[in-house]
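Sequence design from tokenized structure. All designs in this work follow the same two-part layout: the structure record, then the generated sequence. An example of the structure record is given first.
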């Protein structure tokens, strides 16, 4: 079911709120081609003064030049956390190795050696024509057993490789997947499934492409291979932009519940998150936390639950146990006190323990932790037990555990992660941007891309390992991320695994080319610009955003361009 009804209901509200100067909401007294500096912080046209600062006073950087995605929030400075922020930034940017402190512990299998490799310029990943685990390639593999046919986007992850499949390994091991055998083909869309022509009514054409990913069985260094346990399908997912994540963490759960209730009255929401009969969150919408406490000092014992809100699939809750906190462990496979194990699979451990070249290399190195008694059987047994996640929990007969990342390093990393700012908005004084906002609201885009939220007390959770330390906090801020924090379905060809995807925040994305050298959009970078991203929302009539896309399709070129200018300005 699409959300036309809900869009129509909110239409009057969003336009009325957004416009302050007649029907157009445009302030004719503003010289719209002037630089915006003299207008920053002022109400202009249909923009309030606060909209210049998408992260609020505590979360916005005034820098809008190259490198602005790397800026700390004013909150970091005011709380005296700059040293921790800078040290955490180093953990994000530096390459991890097998032995060089303080960035040691890489592998034995891993996805990337540096977080920055996946987040070039601190932004969204770039579209790639080949899969290589190197700088600028933000792609992660999704490997699953499809249901309802080979082209299904749905199905469970295969267990033979990790959820973040590893294409790199430290000597003498082989990665679970040989990336040289991964093939990415970009295919053109020849016709929209919805019937929308690939030419706007005024004659301007647009084009769409999508990825076809293939990985042969020979690429898998696991025993068994995924092909031996069922049909296999593949999808690409690019890294999510990380700017402003701490501000999203500060949105109150009760406010998100209100948004769910509003949308559930008119749209079908993911039943894994919303129980329509109970008009409340489903049991699976909650994420179970480890031992910790809240910012106000209230204990949060292990088992405390918070609402899932991070990643495309919304698999994690608090940012402090979210994608970044997990990725600094599982992308590099660097252990820490709250992750006292390797990120591996039993199928990979078995394959490595049976590999003659691996055993021979270890046999030639008595200093190897896998050497054991030096016999083939002894080495095989050591490799199997040290790599198998069922037996490689440190602090057992095989290990004397010393965390490779210290608790202080982990804390610094999270100060940095929660402390990344959002760049201020640009060009809000311009007529075309003001017009774009009015049209964006009128055609229903703001239904899912909800403009603003209030953070209230920001009583964030933090784990026990640094519970006595503070993180950047964003109390009582009005923020403008342009997301409803809810999942929807777009039904694109070779779409996103799981079908449901959280509405991507739009704030700051207009500076992507400035910071990363690319402006690719959507979960796998299939959209090369804003127009393509919008039109993918209407590929299928089943899409939750089809009605709004159809309205966009029928706009004049002037209004289409205005919407693009608006999206690139917020």
């Amino acid at each position: 079911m699409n959300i036309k009804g809900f869009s129509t209901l909110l239409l009057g509200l969003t336009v009325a709120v957004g416009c302050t100067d007649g029907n157009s909401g445009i302030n004719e007294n503003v010289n719209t081609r002037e630089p915006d500096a003299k207008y920053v912080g002022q109400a202009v046209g249909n923009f309030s003064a606060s909209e210049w600062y998408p992260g609020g006073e505590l979360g916005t950087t005034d820098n809008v030049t190259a490198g602005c995605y790397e800026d700390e929030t004013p909150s970091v400075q005011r709380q005296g956390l700059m040293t921790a922020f800078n040290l955490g930034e180093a953990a994000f940017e530096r390459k991890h190795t097998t032995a060089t402190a303080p960035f040691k512990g890489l592998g034995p299998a891993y996805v990337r050696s540096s977080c920055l490799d996946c987040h070039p310029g601190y932004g969204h990943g770039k579209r790639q024509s080949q899969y290589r685990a190197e700088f600028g390639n933000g792609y992660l593999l999704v490997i699953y057993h499809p249901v309802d046919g080979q082209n299904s986007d749905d199905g469970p992850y295969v267990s033979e490789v990790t959820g973040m499949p590893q294409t790199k390994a430290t000597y003498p091991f082989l990665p679970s997947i040989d990336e040289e055998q991964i093939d990415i083909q970009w295919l053109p869309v020849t016709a929209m499934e919805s019937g929308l022509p690939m030419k706007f009514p005024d004659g301007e054409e647009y084009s769409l492409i999508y990825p076809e990913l293939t990985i042969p069985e020979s690429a898998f260094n696991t025993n068994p291979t995924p092909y031996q346990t069922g049909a296999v399908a593949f999808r690409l997912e690019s890294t999510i932009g990380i700017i402003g994540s701490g501000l999203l963490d500060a949105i109150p759960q009760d406010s998100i519940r209100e948004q769910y209730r509003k949308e559930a009255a008119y749209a079908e929401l993911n039943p894994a998150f919303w129980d329509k009969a109970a008009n409340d969150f489903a049991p699976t919408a909650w994420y179970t936390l480890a031992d910790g406490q809240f910012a106000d000092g209230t204990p949060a014992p292990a088992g405390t639950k918070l609402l899932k809100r991070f990643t495309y699939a919304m698999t994690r809750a608090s940012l402090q146990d979210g994608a970044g906190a997990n990725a600094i462990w599982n992308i590099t496979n660097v252990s820490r006190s709250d992750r006292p194990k390797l990120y591996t699979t039993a199928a990979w451990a078995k394959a490595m323990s049976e590999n003659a070249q691996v055993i021979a290399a270890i046999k030639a190195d008595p200093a190897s932790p896998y050497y054991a008694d030096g016999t083939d059987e002894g080495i095989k047994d050591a490799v199997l037990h040290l790599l198998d996640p069922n037996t490689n929990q440190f602090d057992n007969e095989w290990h004397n555990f010393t965390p490779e990342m210290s608790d202080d390093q982990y804390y610094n990393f999270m100060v940095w992660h929660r402390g990344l700012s959002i760049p201020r908005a640009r060009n809000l004084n311009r007529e075309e941007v003001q017009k774009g906002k009015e049209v964006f609201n009128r055609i229903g885009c703001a239904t899912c891309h909800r403009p603003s939220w209030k953070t209230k007390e920001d009583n964030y959770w933090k784990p026990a390992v640094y519970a006595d330390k503070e993180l950047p906090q964003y109390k009582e801020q009005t923020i403008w991320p342009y997301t409803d924090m809810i999942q929807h379905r777009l039904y694109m060809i070779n779409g996103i695994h799981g079908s449901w995807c959280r509405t991507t925040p739009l704030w700051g994305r207009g500076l992507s080319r400035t910071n990363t050298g690319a402006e690719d959009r959507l979960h796998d970078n299939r959209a090369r610009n804003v127009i393509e991203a919008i039109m993918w929302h209407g590929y299928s009539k089943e899409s939750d955003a089809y009605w709004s896309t159809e309205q966009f399709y029928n706009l004049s070129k002037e209004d289409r361009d205005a919407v693009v200018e608006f999206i690139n300005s917020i």
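The CA atoms of residues 286 and 307 lie 5 Å apart. We note this feature because it recurs in several other targets discussed in the main text.
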